[in-house]
Amino acid sequence: MTLENRSLERGLMVLEALSRDRALSLADLHKVTGLPKSTLRRLLGTLVARRAVRRSVADGLYRSNVVLPMGAGQRMPATVGPLVDHAMPHVLELTRRIQWPSDLHMVSDLRMTIVDSTRPASPFHLYPGRLHRQLNIFGSASGMACLAALPEAHVDEIARRTAEDVTWGLARFGLSVEAYREHLEATRARGYGVRLGTYLGETVLDDRLWAIAVPVRQREAVVGAITLIWPRDFSSPEDFAATHLRPLEETADAVTDSLSALSRE
User: Fold this and answer.
1) Which positions fall inside the HTH iclR-type domain (predicted)?
2) Which of 9, 194, 235, 255 is deepest in the core (most CB within 10 A)?
């Protein structure tokens, strides 16, 4: 005779739905699972408290922090949950402090990925970002910040693996590895990454945004970056950084400390 725990079974139903569909609202979960919304609220409250599920700031949708074998489709690495959990309180405080929105990006092998954003919390309504959108690691501000913090051999390996790729490689910008190293040297000298001048984002239309970014580490490993974004017509990266780079650096330091403490637990 098989004994089943009803609450556990329902919790697993929620995790399976999120693992399959990646991001769902309460109404979506109600439709997918058939569970009452009151039950779902209780389950989600527990799952969020235990960090098995997170509710993204950017769009209010629920996402799973755990990978289940029955989940279908492309999934984010298991490390995305801890990164978001430990980073977003600090990133939200940054936006409350300076008002400009910030995106949290994660290094995803050969690309950068947006994993959360404070755009909804900012009084400045910018082009809406899409969570889990992948970005060119060479052209994006976050990618440049991360690459500048990596050993040269690591950068060369990424360039080699994307050598013929006109979407994700340096070929998109008509640059050689040697030419790109000059951009990395400039990044190290000024202390933050910026978008390449010819990089207009990954949207169909030009998003007309500038961004600056600094890397986030877990111990010695570069795991992602925090960006600040604003309309190109408002300010140059140099002028914007003169005012806002220090709060951005302080936020990245706080996130790095939080992630490093997690590693020691």
Assistant:
1) 5-66
2) 255
pLDDT tens, position by position, 83-107 = 888 899 999 999 999 999 999 999 9
Distance CA 220, CA 7 (A): 40
pTM: 0.76
Closest of 207, 220, 201, 202 to residue 259, by C-alpha: 220
Q: How far apart are CA 144 and CA 200, in angstroms?
A: 14
Helix (H, G, I), strand (E, B) or coil at 144: helix
6-64 is classed in which CATH architecture?
Orthogonal Bundle (1.10)
Q: Which one-letter amino acid corresponds to residue 145?
A: A
Cα torsion angle, 251, 133, 125, 121, sign: negative
Summarize pLDDT for 124-166 with one digit per residue, the tens: 988 766 788 899 999 999 999 999 999 999 999 999 999 989 9
Report the pLDDT value the prediction gives residue 175, as an integer from 0 to 100. 94
Q: Is 223 helix (H, G, I), strand (E, B) or coil?
A: strand
User: Could you count the other beta carbons within 10 Å of the beta carbon of residue 72?
Assistant: 10
What distances in angstroms separate CA 33 from CA 122, 206, 242, one per listed residue?
33, 39, 50
Domain borders along the chain are 6-64, 80-264
